[in-house]
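TA notes, week 10

Several of you asked for a full example with nothing omitted. So below is the full record: structure tokens for the whole chain, then the designed sequence directly under it. When grading your own attempts, check the secondary structure regions first.
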């Protein structure tokens, strides 16, 4: 399984990589903003994208819109501090498949990934 980790914080990306490794997901690429994520999704196939919301250059929600506009149906999980119900609804409406609030436990992230991929395959 191959994941794309999108977050402007290098520390957060490292934390997510370690959480993925605990879930036996050892292949991943990283992007520091939404623009890099959109480019990565157009150049490579991923099984899941873990997307932060607040980033410079292009926000996560703008990246979700761009990825969906291109026709890419990769499962996208928002991994963000934006935990207000209205933000969750907005992300899901724009094409995110699931949502997890920071900080998170590695096992919760692993469960969300599994749940999201299973739903996406139906």
């Amino acid at each position: 399984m191959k994941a794309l980790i999108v977050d402007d914080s290098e520390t957060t990306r490292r934390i997510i990589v370690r959480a993925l490794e605990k879930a036996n997901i050892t292949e991943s690429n990283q992007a520091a903003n939404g623009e890099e994520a959109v480019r990565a999704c157009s150049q490579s196939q991923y099984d899941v994208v873990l997307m932060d919301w607040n980033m410079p250059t292009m926000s996560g929600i703008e990246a979700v819109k761009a990825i969906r506009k291109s026709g890419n149906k990769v499962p996208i999980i928002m991994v963000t501090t934006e935990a207000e119900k209205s933000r969750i609804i907005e992300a899901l409406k724009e094409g995110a498949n699931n949502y997890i609030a920071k900080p998170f436990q590695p096992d919760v992230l692993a469960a969300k990934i599994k749940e999201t991929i299973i739903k996406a395959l139906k």
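The mean pLDDT is 94. Use that as a sanity check on your answer.
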